[in-house]
Amino acid sequence: MHLNHRIEKVFPCLQWIKGYQYSHFTSDLIAALIVTIMLIPQSLAYALLAGVPPQLGLYASILPLMVYAVFGTSRTLSVGPVAIASLMTAAAIQNLGIENQVDYVNAAIMLAFLSGVFLVLMGFLKLGFLANFLSHPVVSGFITASGIIIGLSQFRHIIGIKASGDNLLELVETLLANIGSANTATMMLGIPVLLFLFWARSGLLSLLRYYSAPQKLIKLLPKVAPVLAVILTCILAYQFNLEASGLALVGEIPRGLPSFALPVFSNVSWIDFIVPAIFISIIGYVESVSIGRTLGAKRRQKVDSNQELIGLGTANIASAYSGGIPVTGGIGRSIVNFNSGAETPLAGFLAAIGIALAAMTLTGLLSYLPTATLAATIIVAVSNLIDFSILKKTWNYSRSDFTAVLLTIVITLLAGVEGGVLSGVGISIFLHLYKTTKPHIAEVGQIAGTEHYRNVYRHKVITYPEIMTLRIDESLYFPNTSYLEDQILQRIAERKDLKHIVLMCPAINEIDISALEILESINQYLSELDIGFHFSEVKGPVMDNLKKSDFLEHLNGKVFLSQHQAIEAILQKKYQKAKEKPEFTDFQI
Amino acid sequence: MHLNHRIEKVFPCLQWIKGYQYSHFTSDLIAALIVTIMLIPQSLAYALLAGVPPQLGLYASILPLMVYAVFGTSRTLSVGPVAIASLMTAAAIQNLGIENQVDYVNAAIMLAFLSGVFLVLMGFLKLGFLANFLSHPVVSGFITASGIIIGLSQFRHIIGIKASGDNLLELVETLLANIGSANTATMMLGIPVLLFLFWARSGLLSLLRYYSAPQKLIKLLPKVAPVLAVILTCILAYQFNLEASGLALVGEIPRGLPSFALPVFSNVSWIDFIVPAIFISIIGYVESVSIGRTLGAKRRQKVDSNQELIGLGTANIASAYSGGIPVTGGIGRSIVNFNSGAETPLAGFLAAIGIALAAMTLTGLLSYLPTATLAATIIVAVSNLIDFSILKKTWNYSRSDFTAVLLTIVITLLAGVEGGVLSGVGISIFLHLYKTTKPHIAEVGQIAGTEHYRNVYRHKVITYPEIMTLRIDESLYFPNTSYLEDQILQRIAERKDLKHIVLMCPAINEIDISALEILESINQYLSELDIGFHFSEVKGPVMDNLKKSDFLEHLNGKVFLSQHQAIEAILQKKYQKAKEKPEFTDFQI
User: Is residue B519 part of a domain?
Assistant: First the structure.
């Protein structure tokens, strides 16, 4: 590879920097402004969701964005703290039984660091394909269920009660148990803010459209609504000293930028964080690549899944070194970035500068911010994630996809996020394997006027009483060997005048050694009954393997290149008897 | 189903009882005698291996054999305590930290009971197919490794030292640490017995053949050798009061038959036994069905895998109710039963009566039996299980089968039996899935003079620059969707004059919803490039599914019955443009 190419592989930013134009800068700057305005309350909110002090959310929105702009391959992905990663961070730390505030913060940072290391490692080992085991329906189901859990977990802040738990039952139980102790001041502020934010997403849009407001305003106002809510509620809290009436505020946020160092651990072992870090990083990666690909497809921009691992991994390491929580590409934020006209990752870089400026100047004001406002921001944001349409779509298409989604949703709701993901993957794989244990086996015949052979029950075909051709629609491997044997022997028993069996193998992509042993035993059995055992359309890689065994030497029949040749040869009785060298010599490789 | 048939389904014994002849009885009786002689020391030995008092081995060889004769489907399988199930029983109880002798015995009985319940449940739910996930190579590897562990674990009894552990390292470590304290009397007796038993298997046979001894003697003597060893060592131990010199004896065995009741539990919860019971029962089932099938095939007798679950399950429940340890069909014992001429399960029933008589009369003599003799019996028996040839066989045929076997052996040796089995299954499934994530994709062309299309790199074929036909050799499902997309887009990018892509689908047995989404996005992309996107040889079940979605309505091309029709239609430009109803109407179902 040319040196330039290699350097560009390591620093994908060089590709867009080369072709950078002034017009790009204007678009990137506008997108950066909008995203910054949106990111300030979101960063604080996701820190709240993760259970860490608000500045950790801000820190996670500065350096990681810059690093991703250098190493990431998506042009418009917006990286930073996101709802699901924050929820998983909180759940992981609580599961480890860490309650001390200093340890809790260190744990969150350690999770970001280990997630980053894990992602970079996966990237170097080119293991991006492993993420494919999280199927799209399973991820959709998981995101929907997580959205519900997140929304419910934040509701306590809206009405000012204590509630906890990382699954539906615990949350509902603690919410109901404490609902009597709701705080009036919090409710009076929280519920209107929540309603306002929901209205800003739907009612406001209709209103603006009704009055034919300019497009730019229609685009901008709903995004500014959370900022308005933040400013207004800060002022209210300050003016009326609502903290005294029981309204929870964000409280003091250290002014300025983070220092660049990993925290020193004392009471907890980093080993315990490896498994949760793997979960957080894989889920984050899948979410990020999925939105990155969707946006990339709209502008014909490619997202390289292995380089993305490195981009997101370095972003997480950067987040940890600057005292932030785990980050990934956020769905909502990336769509806003894309729709606001971002052309290159410079938009993300500029947004990072915006957040840094906010961290240096706005922290005084933000200390009066009611947590109820942040909770309302989160609830409105995650309400977008909740989407049950995947249930309907999969129900119509395939019951096994539907089962995987439904169980993922139910288990995530009842057992929490990590259990939900694991079950989703497990169920999908199990259902796939289950289908392969009882493969579809079709008896086929010739479609008149062609050399094509199809299922006797679906097509009008020509067959012969002394020949049975079975097409097995699956690779032959250990889970289906005994089914295969039962099926073949049973079908032989039903056909008394049978002289030849042909296994038509276009769908057999592998014959493992367990299956080979079964084929040997079937061959033995058929030899004794003096029934020919033939194969047709065995694919190259499978044939290569069979030749390594002595199966073909003992075969009581022949291997034919095509099904048609097999039938013609058998009918003309031209085939030679067993124990000779198999005819199949036209495999050149 | 006819009532008689139904009753025969529930009681498979009715089938052989109906056709029972006097000549059968003679054969069965002789086989029963030989098996009884063999079973007495083996039953005591496997009780020793399981760590329970010797009578539990005898009890496990009475009622279970009778129950299996009623409910089992194999004619010649010999059920009873076996080496691997006993090893797993001991490992499970030790893992649970049970040391008190009464609890230990109760735990062993509880494991037999739960194994039985689990097997019967599997049988009623017709889940026998699940056992297929233990592939034959993995089971071979597991049995070999278990054989090594069992042999090593018994060696301490031969030289009279303490050693423990359920994996290779622990065993070797404790053996080496204690070898200095070996007991002279034990060694003086143990080592000669061990050598004698090995010689009786090989040297004795050659000797008998050399002197042209009658066939019956050649067959019988090696089987009687362990009994000779038992009798001789009992007499030696009694005569010279070797117990005083440190020789461990079996000790008092309660005379008579077991009482029929489950033990009452006090200190341990039966919940803890569920997982080990599942392991023991599945491994036992696989071992049993595998030997049952092998023997059945030799006499054209069928073994019904679901009924076998019930047969072995009830046998285990019977074992527990009569105070015995987990049982299953033993490999060595079944082969002896078969070779001794057993015709029906009555042989097993008669052997049970033989053991019962022994339990009532011989216990006085057997209390002088040295454990070294039993250990030697076990070592000689399991030495037959150790067989590394599966490594060579799989190495030659397929590296992924080889990897699965090798890792199963290594992990079983290092991490114990349960870990070994789990890893074996996990590795086999993972390797299979891994292969499906990067499926073989062949570009194909027409073999001149036929309507058959094959790989352009393996055959001399006719192709056209404007048409690319790809045959994807795998079902399209979530783990390979992104690989598929990358491959197709990459191949398109390399072919500038491309006008049509045909996906030839004979090997595609499933298109799940994740794959459907990728096909939709590829179709979208190809539409914009004005490249036709066609399918050929889509199988019935897959087509049924595609019709449930709106994919075919948006398809920028057509679905052809055969690849040849696709090429002909495209060449004659007869195909109609997209958005019309797909031509594919000859699917009748």
Answer: yes
